[in-house]
Amino acid sequence: xxxxxxxxxxxxxxxxxxxxxxxxxxxxxxxxxxxxxxxxxxxxxxxxxxxxxxxxxxxxxxxxxxxxxxxxxxxxxxxxxxxxxxxxxxxxxxxxxxxxxxxxxxxxxxxxxxxxxxxxxxxxxxxxxxxxxxxxxxxxxxxxxxxxxxxxxxxxxxxxxxxxxxxxxxxxxxxxxxxxxxxxxxxxxxxxxxxxxxxxxxxxxxxxxxxxxxxxxxxxxxxxxxxxxxxxxxxxxxxxxxxxxxxxxxxxxxxxxxxxxxxxxxxxxxxxxxxxxxxxxxxxxxxxxxxxxxxxxxxxxxxxxxxxxxxxx
Amino acid sequence: xxxxxxxxxxxxxxxxxxxxxxxxxxxxxxxxxxxxxxxxxxxxxxxxxxxxxxxxxxxxxxxxxxxxxxxxxxxxxxxxxxxxxxxxxxxxxxxxxxxxxxxxxxxxxxxxxxxxxxxxxx
Lengths: 313, 122
Ligand SMILES: [Fe+2]
Ligand SMILES: [Fe+2]
Known about the structure:
By secondary structure, chain A is mainly α. Helices cover 68% and strands 2% of the residues of chain A. Chain A is globular and about 70 Å long. By secondary structure, chain B is α+β, with helices and mostly antiparallel strands. In chain B, strand 1 (35-41) and strand 2 (48-55) form a beta hairpin. Chains A and B meet through helix 4, helix 5, helix 7, helix 8 and helix 12 of A and strand 2 and helix 1 of B. One fe (ii) ion (FE2) is lined by residues 45, 75, 78, 154, 158 of chain A.
């Protein structure tokens, strides 16, 4: 069959909301786009463990420590679901790790910001996981089956992440003057980077149109960002805190909040590797990988030895 | 809201400076643990259902990893793992002819038979 026909039939399936499965024919560019997107997504989950893992030993109570550990463990799980979804497209796990460790692959820029106070654990849960959920819910209906199924699993777990974060901030917002200040400070630092998580404005996001045609993506960056802002602008009132944007104002006509300009320069700088923690994050990943080598080798050797014994018996 | 309080900041911002090991120049996929498919019985009395996949050195490790990756919230009471290379699958390109024999046999469904309303419990 001619490639044109295959591509047409592929698009017909997409248009009819039929999911694409690993062994189905798909255009090369579709496969490549998915590998890039899913592996970046997986890397983000894995690197995303670092800023929060940093606070496990410093959590203010045993309860908070247990919660934080559960959340960080979930993020590891999310990374694993996504890596295996990407593997169904023909890239190996080692190749993906290699791309991460050599800096060839990107991960979400948000994780290149430092976590300076305990309140950051709250702000990350509320804003960073909140923004992630906003991105991820429509991905549960993405056109590639394994990706969609991984996202369903992830979304089920994310809600706890966001709620525990908000609750952490809520407790601080009702605490001492110092705790309140810490709460506001964390919100101030995480607000703008969270808005950047939705990616550049639609006008500067050339891949969006094709991704939407293939139904990999269901909503545009700007649509998702607006939804997120509308949601947070209301939620922040419950905390008795403010969002650090003097232009944030309800627009009756648009039925949305207006907001001030986002510093895209900062976004591109962090993306290029010039964020506050890019180096620490990658170093920590490489160190974990390198220092874990003997464990991987030992497990492999043990499995082989046992297999040999089994064959003899 | 105005706060003039000094906020103590510490954390991972330049917390420790540890050299990150060498850049892995070449990958060696041969060292990669094999891939396993995971099937989970969510409740006694139900079928095992495909949950996803993972890498593990052997079956025991695959089951333990499956527990941590796929059943952190009591999603399972039993786990099956099978090395992915042992799974044989039908070819999606041949799905039409493969499933064709079932295509024209509507009489296999109860709704094919029109019975008078007088017939109860059938
Ligand atoms: Fe996650
Ligand atoms: Fe999360």
